[in-house]
Batch of 4 targets.
Target 1
Amino acid sequence: MIVLTRLNGTDRFGINPDLVERIHASPDTTLVMVNGMRHIVTESLDEVITLVVEFRARVLTYAHRLADAGDAAGSFTGPGTGTEARAETGREPTHLSIVHPHDVLPGPAGQRPRK
């Protein structure tokens, strides 16, 4: 969330920047949300953009810290040959395949045809 100030200068509110469709600055800064709702704020267009960029940087930083903490604890397997999953669970990793709906014959539980 980013925190902005309504045009009256006293009400502050948080907004999810992922739901902002566009921002106008003529002359007041207006945020148009994906659902069509509009918010007029005291911050300038550049200030709002900076807040959004900083928010996304915080999200990425937090995600990297979580991944690093997982690596240190040995719980994050990440991509690889599958030996990580085998070591943790004692069994082979599950391999998924993509099946096109036209390749599946009608039958119990959509079983694949034998080839």
Target 2
Amino acid sequence: MKFCKVLLNGEVLFEKARLMNSFFERLTGLMFQEHPKHKVLIFKDCTSIHSFFCLLTFNALFIGKNGKILNHFTNISRNKILPVVFGAKYTIEYLEKPLNFSLNDIIEIVEI
């Protein structure tokens, strides 16, 4: 199990996020979890997600290879399919209340 810090414009946004690497981790994500152990999940090379079998409402950030925020979906409820976000290098799913971002914000993911 690997973890990362997520930085927003050089400042810590999420102290400890779980990096989803294996096929099974990527397949399940937040599915079937009422009380997930990790509140922030990071998927590398992920351009689309769904919320089938998710018991919680969550938010998703799609990040390009240059760290720019390509799209931010908030309050994703169960049984939804999000549109493909072309060019996404990382997808961050988080359970906290939706955050506000500007077009010039840069997200960095640093493995710890």
Target 3
Amino acid sequence: MTSKEGMREIESAIRGVLMAKWDPIGVSDEPQAADEYDSYIWGIYGLFKKGANDEEIAEHLVKIETERMGLTDLEGKPFASQQALLSVAADLREILTSVSRKA
């Protein structure tokens, strides 16, 4: 696999998890929104490459939701539960570990 192919596979893998498992704004059913979360892909991958654990990746997702997207309840707390975000982080780790082994 070339470096360019590997990057595309990583990007596609992360995009798939973000759309299927995370999707804080509920656009996964909209084909034209397939790239909605692409601006977050390489930050997530960077955390993975640095050895971030699931809690650190989940915290990164919380920051995206609350600070970048402004998605909080009336008390300023994130809508997503810590458990849900840890599950997304675990899915990201699993898929990235698999893709990294191929590269």
Target 4
Amino acid sequence: MESAKSEIAATAARMVVEEGLEYGPAKRRAVRQLGLNSRSALPDNDALEEAVREYIELFCADTQPVELAALRKLALTWMERLAQFRPYLGGAVWHGTATRLSDIYIQLFCDDPKSAEMALIENKVDYVPRTVTGLNGEPVEALSLSSISRELGEPIGVHLLIYDHDDVRGALKPDAKGRTPRGDIAAVRALVENRAP
């Protein structure tokens, strides 16, 4: 059972890094690719994140740090533009497992849920409104846009997840490993300036 989970994690990790898939779809596709029963037990996200880190270390150690730095720089640019909405960076870009194929996920904690959307409209930013899975697995409104990374020379998906201002307290609780699950502008600026992993 554990060996099957490990095999799923390793296969899914390759898809996450090489194809930019999100964890859920990568795990399901890995099960199909390995010819396993669709009801096979899946590895949890922590196990998959560890497999992603191992894959990056083995196959992308020369390129991934530069790509991660570029993504964090782009994330910081958007966070500074949207500072009034108390932005926090999460996901692979925050945790250090992002590659050039990864999207940027920024949570905004707004007094008025429509205010962030109005700010994008006022600044003539093209975006697509959608509903995605957010904190605690609940659906949340997101504003998705494409932004060019000068360092990478290509467009990157940026997703602004809109939350109520009061949700910020629960969003900062440490994860199962005791890590901060997301970072504010100051934390992301420190990562950019120090080029931390």
